[in-house]
Amino acid sequence: MIPVRKLLRAGTALAAVLGLAFTATDELRVPEPAPAVAADPQVQAPVWTAETDRGTSVFEGIETKPGSVEVVADPQGEHDDVYRLHTSGVPEGSERVRVESRGHKTPDGGRLRFTEGDTYYIGWRSMWEPLPTKTGEWVALWQLKDYGSGAGTPPLSLRARGDVLDLEYCDPDMKTTQLWKIPLPRDSWNSFVVGVHVSSDPGKGWVKFWHNGEEQVLNGQNQFPAATLRADFVTDKWGVYRSDGITGEATAYLADAKVGRSYADVAG
Questions:
Q1: Using 50, 70 and 90 to split pLDDT, how confident is the model at 249?
Q2: What is the dihedral sign for C-alpha 218, 219, 224, 227?
Q3: How many domains does the chain divide into?
Q4: Which InterPro entries does the protein's record reference (predicted)?
Q5: pTM here?
Q6: CA-CA distances (angstroms) from residue 125 to 152, 229, 256?
């Protein structure tokens, strides 16, 4: 007969292998599960997402002068389907070359527009290739554009100028300030988030900006004070819109576009 003490030792060893606890009263005890990790209360569902299975109906409008906007497979293979905004680069009459999305539509057909006092964060990934540029000329790749009475030059623009990508602010007096710049990245995905508090008062409105997950300094500040509204409302645009001195085909790819109430809602 095997002594009880040996049986207890064997049971303890087996329990250790199975990850169980063997008590002094010869009972096996299953460890309590680890407490669940609470969800981050700061993260909310985006208020708008560019779901490619909805095609271009996710946008309030499409401007193709000339050009096309379609859903395609990511040519880099890093994402699922993405938007491809392409222009042949041949002007139509006196119109500047433009192929852009405009605004946001929710699945129920509602229009998301930014008005006085709103705070929104817009996140997306962009890739550009081909993208002809020229020193002294500009290509707008993203715009925060105002609409209605008083609309003019966009308050914010992400632009390519020669081999530089920059973020530009235009104040109500049409004075422009270069807030940020890097060498223009071509043929690779880059992520962006723009945080905007919408106000016609430059003492209340502000802009924040992230590139590839890192918050950027805007003209010496992380939060740049700005009048981000000069008309009835603002919304944003993605694509290619350029000055007259640039010719040739251009393509902008767009992925993971979202609008939310915080950086966490749209980042990643």
A1: very high
A2: negative
A3: 2
A4: Polysacc_lyase
A5: 0.84
A6: 27, 25, 6
Beta carbons of 104 and 58 less than 8 angstroms apart: yes
Residues in the chain: 268
- Judged against a pLDDT cut of 50, whether residue 4 lies above it is answered with no
User: Do the domain assignments include residue 42?
Assistant: no
3-state secondary structure of 252: strand
Q: Which domain holds residue 9?
A: 1-37
CA–CA dist 196, 146 (Å, integer): 13
Cis peptide before 66 (omega within 30 of 0): yes
Residues in CB range of 223: below 8 A, 6 or more apart: 206, 207, 208
- Asked if 104 and 223 sit in the same domain, the reply is yes
Based on the fold, state whether residues 91 and 224 are members of the same structural domain: yes
Rg of the Cα atoms in the chain: 26
Please, how many CA atoms are within 13 Å of residue 53, restricted to the half-sphere of its CB? 2
Residues 145 and 65 in one domain: yes
Question: Tell me, what CATH number does 262's domain have?
Answer: 2.60.120.200
- How is residue 114 annotated by DSSP? B
Do 27 and 119 belong to one domain?
no
With a cut of 80, say whether residue 239 has pLDDT above it.
Answer: yes
Which of 222, 212, 54 minimizes the C-alpha distance to 126?
Answer: 212
What is the pLDDT averaged over residues 149-158? 89
pLDDT tens profile 79-97 = 999 999 999 988 888 889 9
